[in-house]
Automatic annotation (TrEMBL):
It comes from the Bacteria. Residues 178-325 form the YhcG PDDEXK nuclease domain. Residues 21-154 form the YhcG N-terminal domain. It holds the Pfam family DUF1016_N. GO terms for molecular function: nucleic acid binding. This is DUF1016 domain-containing protein.
Amino acid sequence: MSDLSQINNSEYSQFLHQAIDHIKTARTLLAKQVNSSANSVYWNLGKLLFEKQLEEGYGSSVVKQLSIDLKNEFPDMGLSPRNLWNMKRFYERYYQANPKLLRSVAVLPWGHNLLLLDKVQSLSAVAFYANEVAEKGWSRDLLLNAIKMDIYNRTESQLKANNFNSTLPQISVEYANEVFKSSYNLGFLGITEPMKELELEKRLISKIRAFVLELGKGFSFIGNQYRLEYNNKEYFGDMLFFHRGLQSLVAVELKIGSFKAEYVGKMNLYLSLLDKFEKGENENPSIGIILCADKDHVDVEIALQDINKPISVAEYQMLLPKNELQTLILNEINAQETKD
């Protein structure tokens, strides 16, 4: 008898997700260790230049010679004069910062740190972007686009559109508000033209790992068009996840247009069925996320006020429209040419 016959498909799927999570965690830790070691070297070199009070101009010849001599010893370390000055900027920027921020930037790739040095002034914004990169594995390009879109200030100013305070155990409310955001960025889909909801769902399924990263830590994908049957009727949810920290099933419903109050009633029913037929004995209530292209906070608040299941309404963004993205790239190229 095959060993696989001893566990059912659901148990094996959970087992597989756990194995994948272990591998991803190990890889992330290794990458952080490598980045942290490199940044530690850059930090100390920057500190040395800072303490010697070298400035671009009169100190240029010293740094140029230092670069030549260091590259003879360490040819693969990227010790150009420009990079040495960047190390000094890195040290100057953070040497008086709080330890938590220092730990956050220490594990970022050097290219990401240079982007934060050039594009972000506020240290609180740096902390936000550093945390997003660490949690979601943003590439340098995605970080650049997030900065250009001013995601930090958008996130800070957005109101939470959910009823968690009245529907979740009090111990879970604060954590749930941290887990679920008011806005999700679907720019990794590369969509520049309008599409139907089913096509959007197919795109997300095809890039489910990227979508899980955008959702944040702790999510495991269970399935799409997840079928539930009750009273001889079938009910389907667009996407179903499980969140380990919250110990809750999470149903995600995708809507192409603006939020409508009727979406809440449909989600409330689906969550009731999940809790009745799928929720484990020791798990918390299932949570619903309605993803819309746009929402009005007042409409959402009214729609949720008498609902007894935990539901959050969030907007999604496609990063940038094609014409805006082209303009952004051209501006970056022109700015670089002017700098050079």
